[in-house]
Amino acid sequence: MTAALEVRGLTTRFETRKGPVTAVNDVSFSVQPGRIMGLVGESGSGKSVTGFSVLGLIDEPGRVTGGQVLVQGTDLRALPPDALRRMRGSKVSMVFQDPMMTLNPVLRVGDQMAMAVRVHEKMSKRAAWDRARQALETVGIPAPAERLQAYPHQLSGGMRQRVAIAMALLHRPAVIIADEPTTALDVSIQGQILAEVRRLADETGTAIVWVTHDLAVISSLADDISVMYAGRIVESGTAEQVIGSPRHPYTRGLIDSVPSLHEPGAKLPQIPGATPQLANLPSGCPFRPRCAFATEACASPPSPARGAWAPRPVPSSAGGDMTDPLLKIDTVSKRFSRKPGLLGRGIDRITGRSSESTVHALTDVSLEVTRGEVLGIVGESGCGKSTLGRIVAGIYAPTEGAVTLDGTPVARGSDHGIEKLTTRVQMIHQDPFASLNPRMKVGETIAEGPRVHRIVEPARLRARVAELLEQVGLEGAYADRLPHQFSGGQRQRIAIARALAMEPELLVLDEAVASLDVSIQAQVLNLFIDLRRELDLTALFISHDLSVVRHVCDRVAIMYLGRVVELTSAARLYARPMHPYTEALFASVPTLGTGRAAFHPIKGEIPSPLNPPKGCAFHPRCPLAGPRCRIEVPRLAAPETGHSVACHLHDGGTGAAEAAA
Amino acid sequence: MLGYLARRLAQAVVVVFAMSIIVFVGVYAIGNPIDVLIDPGATQEIRAKLIAQYGLDQPLWRQYFTFLANVAQGDLGTSMVYNIPVVDLVFSRLPATLELVFVSVCIATFIGIPAGLYAGYKPGSLAARAIMALSVLGFSVPTFWIGMLLIMAFAVNLGWLPSGGRGDVGSLFGIPTSLATADGWSHVIMPALNLSLFKMGLLIRLTRAGMVEAMQTDYVKFARAQGLPDRQIVFNHVLRNISIPIVTVFGLELGSTLAFAVVTESVFTWPGVGKLIIDSILQLDRPVMVTYLVLVVILFVLINLVVDLVYARLDPRVRLKGKA
Lengths: 661, 324
Hints:
The complex is a heterodimer.
Chain A: E1 5-16, E2 19-31, E3 36-40, H1 47-54, E4 62-71, E5 74-75, H2 81-87, E6 92-95, H3 99-102, H4 109-118, H5 125-138, H6 144-149, H7 157-169, E7 175-179, H8 187-204, E8 207-212, H9 215-221, E9 224-229, E10 232-238, H10 239-244, H11 249-256, E11 327-338, H12 342-351, E12 357-369, E13 374-378, H13 385-392, E14 400-405, E15 408-409, E16 411-414, E17 417-421, E18 425-428, H14 442-452, H15 461-471, H16 488-501, E19 506-510, H17 518-535, E20 539-543, H18 546-552, E21 555-560, E22 563-569, H19 570-575, H20 580-588, H21 627-631, E23 637-640, E24 643-645, H22 655-660
Parallel strand pairs in A: 3-8, 3-9, 6-7, 7-8, 13-20, 13-21, 18-19, 19-20
Antiparallel strand pairs in A: 1-2, 1-4, 4-5, 9-10, 11-12, 11-14, 14-15, 16-17, 21-22, 22-24, 23-24
Helix pairs in contact in A: 4-5, 5-7, 14-15, 14-16, 15-16, 16-17
Chain B: H1 2-30, H2 33-37, H3 44-54, H4 60-72, H5 86-121, H6 126-140, H7 143-157, E1 170-172, E2 175-177, H8 182-215, H9 218-225, H10 230-259, H11 262-267, H12 273-282, H13 286-314
Antiparallel strand pairs in B: 1-2
Helix pairs in contact in B: 1-13, 5-6, 5-8, 5-10, 5-13, 6-8, 7-8, 8-10, 9-10, 10-13
GO biological process, one term (chain B): transmembrane transport
Protein name (chain B): ABC transporter permease
Domain ABC transmembrane type-1 (chain B): 94-311
């Protein structure tokens, strides 16, 4: 049988000021029809460039310099430009990472799809729309005719990615290159898409190259896996072989960096260093400087010491701890409303309609964090977890309720603005590229807070900055560098140093490791675990990643549409989730080492916080919802000590359970 | 949509009122027109009589309300210098300016946007670099200087085109305009080109910047991955996306050119409103100043309204507030 796609010796170079860089170096692989091949690697490994090279879509200053790309036996590289263009979309197509960006925002979905249909097949506009509608049906989009009339911004992220997949499938191509297509999506939506893609590959016989950094996703989806490092494929085989018995030390290291495989709180075995700059690759094996097996000197066991660290016991009813939390979030609600202006109100009165709209970001959230505890806040996008973090840091004022630190409010002010902000809470943001001022030396950035608030004497500032940098695993001499000279992981360390410089009592980490590669993520998580032990940190750890949260948090609060739906110790939550939403979340998350799993993704999409469902907000997606769930909002109650849940199934009431039965 | 329009029009009325007060106070502050108007040797009695005739002895607020009352009756006053109704005066000059601006905006658009698209599509090419160099000249060399160079070249040395003034007026679809005659065109083309250079430079740079940025976006790459030819990508996908800043600048420029084409009109002795306003300021002709400036405000408000409506048409994400 001819392979759907066979790549032989593909090489892509970029001309840079420092000389040519080989981003894809002699890469070969093949994919049979109906099979899914995972192309795994960290950022900068050349996996995406490989995808673009296959389609001949490398922009200047890059150029594919060698190799063959055979699609059903035809070499794309030997085709003239126009013939190659006609292959794209009809024989090979592509799905991109960010569904918010891949569709043209100013054109109707139907127009875009019809354009893609008619470029390869002559037919009337009406017939093309018809074809587009069928394609949307194939990828499981409800009410496809209406979706065609919509503009991209009217669709959710998951829906847009389905549209993109439908577009890739329009002409039944032999191969689809999918470049991180679920990375930007929530886990429940990711689960739905993965299930859909698996079905499509099986039914249509399309071969799929799935480019990703996420081992867990790929191990549950792919038939075969190739691992890329520094532009080369370092290991390939069936999914079972590569995940189950990896042979290359890099693959081994990658798999070991995944938190879900380890005891909570244990230090993660980490790959030292960072992905090398392609401009100056080490000679020989590029992984050598990071490889534990590389030289005789490193012949001793490869994994770094796994410093055991016992998670703190959850304070139970014992003593004053419980009554004296450091952070107290007391029935906090936050609504963002857009009120119409003077004229608008006049017009509203005339027309009898209201143009005021309100987003219910948080509703009645009460949480407590004791000294030295790390509380995880988990939920999908739009659940209000970041809003909560900002309220705790004093950036937003709550609409109702109060946030106090040791009994004093974190900020004084109202909905209209914050007047005075505490320095005792510090925040670490998701994007280390955006959160550091690119024009300030990192030393100045770190020193700014302590200087303004006179936390450190001016004469000692420099020494203190050096000390902080060393504390987060960097060199003191780095203080004079600018942010762009650092990698993502290093910048996140700098952001942590900046937060620690204020000697805060509480840290708020808002998706602080979400944008990092898994090997770098492991390093930053280890740093956090170390710092926590040394400094006795108290923290709110906001994340969408269940495995990361499990690894570093003592207690976890699960949020859905602005409410806390479950709250308990990490160990208990992962052993026995009680809320149907929590259970469904766990079911959606692909885990490493379980092989190709059947997904049970949550049905439907997250409702809009502009107009949350009545009763329990989760009831439209809940398989166990009863009549009571549609009417009455469940309260957060503790059916067992230390385990609270907001669900009618567990509140001792009979309504939901009976209705479900 | 209707609610939105109602709101915008109500806002416009407020703006026009506010502007009329500012203009009124400002004009009052410039000086007393009587000193300019009458013979310095006139007697005190004649002076007092004239002052009373123009109502200049009244307190400012009363003058303003008299003005408003007259406006309500459709009377914007009479020019102190020409002694004809201001409305007639302004509207006798407006068609000339409209012609000039219309031709210059067309030149700027039909040369500027395609040139910018090309320069953005092939940013490294020689032609693109030449276009960009010319665009810099377009808005950095002073207008009057280029105007004089044009006159030197085409009127004085070559003798191809007249050096100034408006040509014969013909009739096009019943509208009297110099664009209906060949002579009219020969008069309008040079000042219009002169007036368009700045706008052309701006449009080239904006279009190029938008194009360069758009060609890097995922939706363009995605369209390429579907096998769409570049021509279709540029005209069906990119052009509409980059048109918002272009429309914004286009609207602003249109307004300011209509209102203040003064320099070009002076260099080419074009009998438009730009010259009229300068003359009336020099002669402290209050009614003309007030009427003209209020007209300009109305013009700007209308252009902005049209620009906003075009936004909503171009970009579905722009939702007009008040649209239920």
